[in-house]
Amino acid sequence: MKKITVIGSLNMDHVIQVPAMPRLGETVLSTGFDLIPGGKGANQACAAGRLGGQVVMLGAVGADEPGGVLLDSLASAGVDVSRIKRCQGVRTGAAFISVDSEGGNSIMVYAGANGQVDIPYIKENAGVLEDSGIVLLQLEIPLETVVFAAKTAKAMGKTVVLDPAPARADLPPELFAYVDYLKPNEVELATLTGDGQAEEHLAQAAEALQARGVGNVTVTLGGKGAFVLDSQGQARQYPARKGLRVVDSTAAGDSFTGAMAAALAQGRPLGEAVEFAVLVSGIVVTRKGAQTSIPTLAEAEAFRQGR
Q1: Most buried residue, 116, 173, 197, 266, by CB count within 10 Å?
Q2: 114-149: pLDDT as tens digits
Q3: Residues taking part in catalysis
Q4: Left, alpha or beta for 221 (phi > 0: left; psi -120 to 50: alpha)?
Q5: Cα(246)–Cα(190) distance, rounded to whole angstroms?
């Protein structure tokens, strides 16, 4: 099994439940509030770890209580947290998440210590990358760090997976050439391609990204499952399970990415990895929170068998 290095963010999620999202200037009363370990990088590391992967996390937290909670959460999922920085004088990153009665969410992120995940830190941990088979990245740490880490991993012959979230249109052209697996959702696909109707012609949008140097493109589509255009030009749709009661979609995309990476690390082909990832994210949306919603490998297998 290949080792997975996740380079990314760790945030404490402040999750508030509301009947409906407030409009500008509107005040609504909440029906619940929770503090839950999150952050795109940490969520993906947590998912890969709980699902059987050998995972090391690179990132940063503050020297505060939330930082300790985040490290404990990842460690409990089997993730190696020994290389995560504890930063003095800066708070641990935080996300402020509103979840409506339909399970939809709206998220605002404070970077905090995530901004300290810089190029010198990646250089200090080059040995971690060298020891890995898969390097997994997102966009909640400085962009220059993402580019440098992807370039370094690619030069080492590692498999690079990029979840281009939060969505941004200003990614350097060189970054795409370092990416073996790109995993946008439908909103991020539209942002990356500049095509507001990208979801209506997924193959053409994915081909446009491959023309920039990306190997495989996997697009998550919420309740519609996922679409894949592999490096050989083969396209396929993977439907989501029907009839799920959506409680909270937070971390659904992150769990998909972590599950896909875990399956790829086990040597499973892309199609099987995506089917597994769709299954896992289907479990996540039926539960509350980010890392609290991510299943173990045994739970995923039980869900697959309908138990």
Answers
A1: 116
A2: 999 999 999 999 999 999 999 999 999 999 999 999
A3: 254
A4: alpha
A5: 24
